[in-house]
Amino acid sequence: VPYSSHAKNTELFQDRESLLFGIVRALVNAIDAKDHYTCGHSDRVAAISRRLAQQMELEEKKCEEIYLTGLLHDIGKIGVPDHILKKPDRLTDEEFDILKQHPTIGHRVLKHLDQISYVLPGVLHHHESLNGTGYPDGLVGDQIPLKARIIAVADAYDAMTSDRHYRDGMPFEKAEEILRTNTGPQWDPNVIESFFAASEDIRMICFRSSVSSQSEQRKSDADLIAYQVE
Questions:
Q1: On the CB side of 203, how many CA atoms lie within 13 Å of its CA?
Q2: For 94, how many CA atoms within 13 A lie in the half-sphere containing its CB?
Q3: Who contacts 158 (Cβ-Cβ below 8 Å, separation ≥6)?
Q4: What pTM does this model have?
Q5: CA angle 191, 113, 149 (to 5 degrees)
Q6: N or C: at which end does the chain have fewer Cβ atoms within 10 angstroms?
C-alpha cells in the first residue's frame, strides 16, 4: 500500500474514532447534566475500573475496554424520570424498581454501536451480585462477566463515598469496610483483593475535582483513540 494511501486511511480511522468517542463523551455529559450530584461519577468509575483491571494484570486492550465500559455504565439513566433521579429522599420500592431498569435501557441504547459492542455485558450486568440477588438477570458467580464484576466494585465505592441528595458521602474507611464485609455474597473476592492493593490510587481518583477530572478525561479519550489506531 502506498504511504500516502496508508496515511489517508489512518487519518480517516482517527476521524472515525474521534467521532465515536465524541459521541460517548456527549452521552456521558448528558447523564451528568441530569443530576449535578452525580456529575463526574461515570468518569471516576471508569478510572477506578481501569485501575482495578491494571492491578488484576489484564492486558492493556482489556483495561481500555473496561475504562470505556465504566464511562457508559449508567447511560441508561437517560431513560429514568428526573423526579426519581433527583428525589431528595430515599426511593420507594416502586421508584427503585423503575431505577433498576437503567442497565437494560443502557444496553438498548448502545446495542447498535458495533464498534464498542464489548461494553454491553458490563453496562447490562454491573448491578448483579455474586449470590444471585442482583439485577436485571440474577446472575450467579462467574455467570457475571468480569467487566461487570470490576465495574460493580468501582461503582459501589464511588457511590458510597460521593454526596447524594439524601445523604453525605461516607468516609473512605467506612466504604472500604462495607466492601470487606460483603466480599463473596455481593462482590468478587479477586476484584476486592485488587481494590485494596490499589486503594491508595483509588482514593486519589475519588479526590479529584470535577475540573481536573474533565481535563484528565479528555487526555484519556485522546490516549484511547491513539491506542486504537496503533
A1: 12
A2: 1
A3: 41, 44, 45, 48, 206
A4: 0.84
A5: 10
A6: C
In whole angstroms, give the CA distance from residue 45 to residue 122.
12
For cell 475540573, the residue is: 211
Please give the C-alpha separations between residue 37 and each of 10, 167, 183, 210, in angstroms, as whole numbers.
Answer: 40, 11, 27, 11
Whether 151 and 48 have beta carbons less than 8 Å apart is answered as: no
Tens of pLDDT, residue by residue over 208-219, are: 743 454 454 455
- Burial tier of 40 (Cβ tally within 10 Å: 0-12, 13-18, 19+): buried
CA pair distance 10, 173, nearest whole angstrom: 47
Closest CA to 102 of 70, 69, 127: 127
Inter-residue contact 43 to 214 (CB < 8 Å) = yes
Number of neighbouring beta carbons within 10 Å of residue 108: 16
How many other C-beta atoms can be found within 10 angstroms of the C-beta atom of residue 3?
7
